[in-house]
Amino acid sequence: MHDIIDFNVGDVHLERVLWRVIQTRPFQRLRRVKQLGFSDFVYPGATHSRLLHSLGVFHTARILMDVVRKYTHPFESAKADQALAAALVHDVGHGPFSHAFEDVGRRLGLKLADHELVSETLIRNGEISAEFKELGSGFADDVADIVSGNGSSSVYSAVVSSQFDADRLDYMRRDRMMAGTEHSGIDFEWLIQNLEVADVAYGVDETSLGQVQTFVLGPKAIFAAEAYVLGLFQLYPTVYFHKATRGAEKLYVELLARAVTLVRDGSTKMTGLAASHPLVKFAKDPENIDCAIALDDTVVWGALSLMADAKDECLATLAKRLRDRKLYKCIDVRTCIAHEKGDAAVGSPEADRVCADIRDEIAAWSDPQTGSAPRALVDQQTRSPYKKITETKGPLDQINIRTDGGHLVDLAQRSKVVAELQAYKLFRVYHDGDDFEAKSKIKQIVDARITKWQQ
Q1: What is the enclosing helix (H) or strand (E) of 66?
Q2: Interacting residues of 263 by C-beta distance below 8 A, sequence separation 6+
Q3: Scanning 87, 174, 377, 384, which has the fewest C-beta atoms within 10 Å of its C-beta?
Q4: Do the beta carbons of residue 263 and residue 455 sit within 8 Å?
Q5: What is the DSSP letter of 1?
Q6: Is the pLDDT assigned to residue 222 strictly greater than 80?
């Protein structure tokens, strides 16, 4: 048994095989991938790594598995071992700056920018798979099935992926602590004390498909459950979707998309990068897993000074801005709508139509000019605080509360606070602060469309 001290969760105990998994190159790479990407541009302390988060998820999964052991008879040790291993390696495929890298992949069709696909590939083959062999010939595939979501759902897999999984329980507490924010706190100990396992009925429309075992909370935990849902929801506008963080991500996506495109077009010399640079190798061979895992945050940071001297004006401009934190200025369109139409109108269908029209008009106006940095970058996101039963994939996507009478009821039916929560929507337009013509044009488009709504 090996122990690692984590300031957030305490001592993390690892058996011999999992200790060796941590020593593999793919897992060690997570030291160089930050959990929160560019959030340290806003919260300087938010520099914790995916490796640290993964250890925390494993530790929390063990606590959840003790609950499964208490309520499940017979307890299936093999499934528990697979789920715990999955908790440890669930993030092993994240690329540089995590989810922002996936945006680059979606734009350019780079399959190995998808962290779930890379995680599955690394677990089924290579160093991690080799270490898992000691636990059985099919162990690595079983772990990969849990991480990819291709396996059958059970209370064991719910430890890794559900509304109340170890991933959320770790990153909510860790991200909040590292960002230094005082809100979004949860009563972790009370939630665990009141956590149970029960058979929950599920079905499609009026047709029953049977029952599935999952986590439920006792009646005394309803307020803690409310705080859990609200805490997770509040982290999005305040930390994950902060305007400066998202602005940096937008520049990063433009930067990497430009660099990869230049390499693909045979213009590597225009990037300022050597032919042997990991970014160039990945751009030339994006379906090579070795090229994919050669990338991490430090590779990109190290490349910024090189790309800042690139012959390509667009790439050089974007690299300098990211290196020196010279972010674009933000115009928050939904805030403009709130100012003109009131807060209640911000999330309305008409507001959605206004944002769509503005997006299309800005896209038509700011059609990128060859060799120049984008004049406007649009960002839109929607985050639901808690999905209704009809919107979920089943009980694993819900939080069920056991009533004093012993019945299981969805949290949104027990809590008026949760039931009344509305989706958080953002629509922002970023522009160069020195480009007064762009700023004026964007404001003109935004004001004209909002004025049209008022008529």
Answers
A1: helix 50-71
A2: 271, 273, 279, 280, 283, 284
A3: 384
A4: no
A5: -
A6: yes
Contact 293, 121 (CB under 8 A): no
Helix (H, G, I), strand (E, B) or coil at 38: coil
CB 209 within 8 A of CB 203: yes
What is the reported pLDDT for 33?
98
Task: Please name the helix (run of DSSP H) or strand (run of DSSP E) that holds residue 148, with its range, or none.
Answer: helix 139-148
pTM of the model as a whole: 0.93
The closest of 229, 227, 197 to 214, measured between CA atoms, is: 197
- State the burial class of residue 26 (Cβ atoms within 10 Å of its Cβ: 0-12, 13-18, 19+): buried
Residue 207 is predicted with a pLDDT of 67
pLDDT in the model for residue 204: 62
The full 3-state SS of 371-385, as one line of letters, equals CCCCCEEEEEEEECC
Which three-class secondary structure state does DSSP give residue 183? coil
Query: Could you report the per-residue pLDDT of 119-163, keeping only the tens digit for each?
Result: 999 999 999 999 999 999 999 999 999 999 988 889 999 999 988
Confidence of residue 208 (pLDDT cuts 50, 70, 90): low
Q: Residue 26 is encoded by which pair of tokens?
A: 């793919």
